[in-house]
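task queued by scheduler; priority normal; single chain, no ligands, no partner chains; default sampling; output format set to structure tokens
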Amino acid sequence: MTIQPLHDRIVVTPAEQEERTAGGIILPDTAKEKPLRGEVLAVGPGKTLENGTVAKIDVKPGDTVLYGKYAGTEVTVEGVDYVILRSDDVLGVLTGGGAKASKPAKKVAVGAKK
């Protein structure tokens, strides 16, 4: 069975939850936080605008994306967990080496002013 998202929605496989904190403490299942990143599996055709044109989605299958903590709808299909998001719920796309890694980078420079 496959999921084909409609309109401006995307299907994401959430990243695995962290088993340990940065300090090495093992987390029980009840203390684990919901993952905020995942890999895009499928993308809908885009949102139909009022003038009839279709606005394409900026992400593609295979991208690793960041999304909001309470964004999307969690679904389970044949024992596999997915998150279905609107394209507006995607906060950013991870690029470069280590984008697929489960640990975030130490520093991220965003819009730094000089």
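post-processing summary
- The CA atoms of residues 69 and 86 lie 14 Å apart.
- The chain has no helices and eight strands.
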